[in-house]
Amino acid sequence: MSTSSGCAAAWTRVVPITSRRCRTNMPSCSARRSSGWRGVKATTMSHEFRPGEVISYPYLWAWQQQRGETEGRKQRPVCVVVAIRSVADGNTHLVLLAITTQPPQAGRVALEIPDIERRRAGLGDLKQSWIIIDEYNYDVVEQSWYIEPYQKALGRFSKSFMMKIAAMFVKARSQSDRVKRFD
């Protein structure tokens, strides 16, 4: 496989644009933005994502997207609520819920994370936090500009807590705001 820059042959994974840095063996950052580079698909994934895992991700809030923003303002912990590998193309589709330390606004659907679950999720340094249930980011791992190829999970929620999150998500999904994070 080749691109106009010729640098894709050395890499099997799209480099996230949010990192704003070049890897070695790559001629320039501008090569990543060419149309040929964006079309490169991953051939290997080092991490299989599972529901309940908490990862770091530049979450884009629905209100930010409505204002025309396309990039999340900061890396934040998110919960993988759905992780499905497509039989058709082998890509991993993720539904990600934001975790925040800010109390939810009135009318929002959110779940406070108990202390023991915060520790399990690798968020023990946060005093109080919530999972926002009524909006989510949808991303495809192999096409993502935001998920690193060797990204490790911060931690993972227990199965019983994850079932509670999933049940609330299913109930709120019809009113949820979806933010698609790929082309």
Report on this structure:
The protein has 183 residues and is of the alpha+beta class. The protein folds into two domains: 1-40, no CATH class; 46-180, Thiol Ester Dehydrase, Chain A (Roll). It has four helices and eight strands. Strands 1, 2, 3, 4, 5, 6, 7 and 8 form an eight-stranded mixed beta sheet that branches. The radius of gyration is 17 Å and the shape is globular. It starts with 34 loop residues before the first helix and ends with a strand. The model is unreliable at 1-44 (pLDDT under 50). Keywords: Plasmid.
Question: How much of the residues is beta strand, in percent?
Answer: 15-25%
- How widely separated are the two ends? 20 Å
Which word captures the global form? globular
Parts with pLDDT < 50 across at least 5 consecutive residues: 1-44
Care to count the β-strands? 8
Using only C-alpha atoms, the radius of gyration works out to: 17 Å
Write the layout of secondary structure elements.
Elements: H1 35-38, E1 53-57, H2 62-66, E2 76-85, E3 92-100, E4 110-112, H3 115-120, E5 130-132, E6 135-140, E7 155-156, H4 159-172, E8 177-180
Parallel strand pairs: 6-8
Antiparallel strand pairs: 1-2, 1-7, 2-3, 3-5, 3-6, 4-5
Keywords: Plasmid
